[in-house]
Design goal:
This protein starts with a helix and ends in a 6-residue tail after the last helix. About 50% of the residues lie in helices and about 10% in strands. A 7-stranded parallel sheet has the order 3-2-4-1-5-6-7, with helices on both faces. By secondary structure, the chain is α/β, with parallel strands linked by helices. The chain is built from 13 helices and 7 strands. Helix 9 links the parallel strand 6 and strand 7. The longest helix is centred in the last third of the chain and has 28 residues.
Length: about 325
């Protein structure tokens, strides 16, 4: 049996092993573990806040290399950095490679850093279902920066904006028709577009790609949480560490502006409401599937839909009929 008060105390003291065990607990699907996970989240409190940065990019763009270089730069400034890296899960087996620690060898050995790879478990949005709760645990453990690396680029990836303060899109140069390579939905939520691999023979191409994206960003409709000049496109190189300091400076400028203008608090409140609604939907589905009688009813309705005797919409309304008190 997990000693919740002891785990909470160790976690708030910055114990990385306690943090790892706590994240394992909240990721568990067992009902008894879920009860203890909720008790742990209450015990650690919510008085500490970190800068939450979402990071996404196309496969092969160098996300892990960038995070390692960027993270080492931050830890060198005596900042504590947590990395929550979400790996895609197999649709068949549910398994994931979870190789981020091996790709961030130097950062994983830094005492001021913590890296936690988690399987997406086919959850939409490029993040694991409990990523938001893992962020809260990292904040409680005293980390200053929490980096959330998502699975990849796609329309559903925009959900990461509902749990972070800044969203960074990492892109590579020399990718052909660059502006067609990324969907508009993810461009619209990006606060910074970083063109990586701006070194060697690709430096000139990276500059041209950056100029293309800067032009595209200027055509986007301005958002309420954008300071003057944002969103921006910059070039960086995770290989030779060029541009990392400027990228970090821009992140601080935007986060400071959002704090000063009240957008930070407003956004976090809206995110909390959003995740309440998501949890409510999940709990309602759990109620429908955990009760044996309701589960049998759902199975019967599924068979009716499969046979073409009921439409999915009609079956869904029939499934919820026992809960309808109108």
């Amino acid at each position: 049996m997990t000693d919740i008060p002891a785990m909470a105390q160790a976690l708030r003291a910055g114990d990385r092993r306690a943090l790892a065990r706590a994240i394992t607990l909240i990721e568990s699907g067992r009902p008894d573990h879920r009860d203890r996970a909720l008790a742990l989240l209450d015990a650690v409190g919510s008085d500490r806040q970190a800068l939450r940065i979402g990071l996404s990019g196309t496969p092969g763009v160098g996300k892990s290399t960038f995070i390692e270089s960027f993270g080492l730069m931050l830890t060198a400034q005596d900042l504590r950095v947590a990395v929550l890296a979400v790996d895609p899960s197999s649709a068949r087996s549910g398994g994931s490679i979870l190789g981020d620690k091996t790709r961030m060898d130097h950062l994983s050995r830094d005492p001021r850093a913590f890296i936690r790879p988690s399987p997406s478990q086919t959850h939409l949005g490029g993040v694991a279902r409990r990523t938001r709760e893992a962020i809260r645990l990292c904040e409680a453990a005293g980390f200053d920066i929490v980096l959330v690396e998502t699975v990849g680029v796609g329309q559903s990836e925009t959900v990461v904006a509902q749990m972070t303060d800044l969203f960074v899109l990492l892109l590579a140069p020399a990718g052909g028709d660059e502006l067609q390579g990324v969907k508009r939905g993810i461009m619209e939520i990006a606060d910074l577009v970083l063109v990586n691999k701006a070194d060697g023979d690709l430096r000139a191409q990276a500059s041209r790609t950056c100029a293309d994206y800067a032009g595209a960003l200027r055509l986007m409709r301005k958002r309420a949480g954008d300071a003057d000049g944002f969103p921006k496109a910059l070039t960086v190189s995770a290989l030779d560490q060029s541009g990392l300091t400027q990228a970090w400076d821009e992140m601080q400028v935007l986060s400071d502006w959002r704090r000063a203008t009240g957008h930070w608090d407003t956004t976090r409140a809206a995110q909390a409401r959003h995740w309440f609604q998501q949890e409510l939907r999940s709990e309602m589905m759990a109620l429908l599937t955990h009760d044996a009688e309701l589960r049998d009813r759902l199975t019967g309705l599924e068979n009716e839909v499969a046979a073409g005797r009921l439409t999915p919409a009609a079956a869904a309304r029939a499934a919820l009929a026992p809960l309808d008190r109108r």
